[in-house]
């Protein structure tokens, strides 16, 4: 790590102080007589934190200081593990009615860990003295939130018109190569804008010349199997999974046969000719004039691929650099043109013609008054000889983040290069890892997560994906920097680890994410049995269309060893069951079993008292949830969907027949995407939704034919759940329904979308069409065949889309249905049929 230990460790230690001082830990520690030892931990940590700045400076020249910082980081993680065990035990006692059975066994184990950690604290303290580390007042930059909630617009690309024109010409030129395709190289230094320029050319109208266009991210792992699959899936998203690589290549050859194609291979590092030779084999099937555009930092890479021409991308001018910088400032900064212009020379001298540098510096300074820029632009980091301008800029941007946001960024080091992630996905991971500080007042952790995410986005640590506007990516330089900050706590299966360093590194690994393979055998995954302190097991995939298989040795033998897991994902693997030992992963907060063949969850899942997120998307075979689900009092997000299920689509039977009893005890739930009202008395009735006051987003309630009278429907209190903006109400097809029950299911007035499916009553409720539903923009009525009159939906002031299908019982349509606006604002689909 290059001089980033102090700013990372400072954030980690601050989090530990908060946990040590929390009411839960203090109460439990006093009750068990260990509060004195924890107080010693706290005071020792404070003394250590006072010397972190000096340690940061000295680690550059002292291997002993560098090792001291690494050991301190590992100790801090182990302290957090012990504190989380305290908290978990407290929840268990609460759920068991304050039963203290087994407490002496627990305390015997935990006391051993406490004593071992205390010895390590003593060792750290004595080494600190021997190293001569001095107390230095740390200047923590003040965090000023953005003056408004707006995020920077997608920037206009500056200074690349001529470059784009030249690339387009090269792609459309005919070089009469003996092959049917030509390779064009786009070469440039990091941060100069190769990917941006390639994307501009890729989206140009002139590219309609090609029958097929494919974009594939490569990075330093030139896995020809993965790349071939990615190209094939881009051409044919419905292509089935093949076991043999030769089958994949043959299928790709058929798809390319006789067609003119453009394939952009972004960020290629490969220097092994045989790998390129294997990958390019199917390309010869294309029509003459096909092109492959390769972006790379190294011209030799493009030449190895027999590039007919290499276009070297130069830096942009100072004027253009300034324009890029200004694009990323806030309106407040731009409103003072004379002050802004006075900083021009200082700013462009730091950017060195690199668009990435201008963008990042703009993101850093947009949160500050212009008068405060001097502290950043004249920081000594710019003049340190071992730093490039880019590294200095990244370090400054990182230093000026608030402490908790620093750790959130460092966690992103687990993502592979060019991996596209969703905002909500990342926030839930941060939350599971304990990276979000406790909010004040009525604010939720998710609110803090969104704030932190927007902070990182506004400062250009994240950027919108060019392929999918709903997702985000990190620039490859920022990905590298995140790994630098995180150090050895992250590991991927693609990492090359020296054999002699494995033992030391494996003990330090806390987080692991990797791109999953079609077949995960024991030889590939056995390395995880060495990660005794692993917190994150996160296989990732660019697509979940194909079948992926996971050896049972992992779930039966390796998984039970990972006692410190906070995040566990088995998403996309063809597993049908989990072992009972899953319940022993007591610190688990995030469990993703989406896109699996799971049929049921072990009852032991109910022992995962810390679980915050349970993801069961596209689990078509799941027929039941654990009966003890009510014990998961920290559960905040329970997301389920049936296999092949799409919103409003009721053509597929749903395997989940009901919800476990006492769902109303899960009062922390914010997301409950699907609620089934079951027939059995042991199932939760719809009234169990009543206490779930924090529900938001989409709520789909099915099995409404099983509601036990209007009184139970009233108890659901849907009208009081203002966070719900999409509501789907579904009855069993061809069943009669009680109109009073439907009347009692009135949604909140802030609802935006409503769908009613298979309602078997004779009339719609009086609240449907009420003008008080002032936010309603979309309504869908499907297969409500016994209703004779349509509700007065024309009274809804903002209704934009209305779909009516299968209302064959409607006898007439009155003027109240149309309202004042007429039908011109609506989209009517298959009316009444």
Q: Strand pairing plus helix content: what structural class?
A: alpha/beta
Alpha-carbon distance between the termini?
67 Å
Mean pLDDT: 86
Q: What is the helical fraction, as a range of percent?
A: 25-40%
Into which percentage range does the β-strand content fall? 5-15%
CATH superfamily of one domain: P-loop containing nucleotide triphosphate hydrolases
CATH topology of one domain: Rossmann fold
- What is the CATH class name of one domain? Alpha Beta
Low-confidence stretches: 146-151, 822-831
> Mind describing the biggest β-sheet?
8 strands, parallel
CATH architecture heading of one domain: 3-Layer(aba) Sandwich
Radius of gyration: 29 Å
Spatial arrangement of strands, main beta sheet: 8-9-11-13-14-15-16-17
Query: If helices are DSSP runs of H or I spanning 4 or more residues, what is the number of helices?
Result: 29
Described by the principal axes of the CA atoms, the overall outline is globular
Structure, explained:
The protein has 833 residues and is of the alpha/beta class. Among the domains are: 5-130; 161-312, 3-Layer(aba) Sandwich (Rossmann fold). The protein is 36% helix and 13% strand. It has 29 helices and 24 strands. The chain has an eight-stranded parallel beta sheet, with helices on one face. It has a seven-stranded parallel beta sheet with strand order 18-19-20-21-22-23-24, with no helix packed on it. Strand 3 (261-268), helix 11 and strand 4 (290-296) form a beta-alpha-beta unit. Helix 13 (318-327) runs parallel beside helix 17 (355-365).
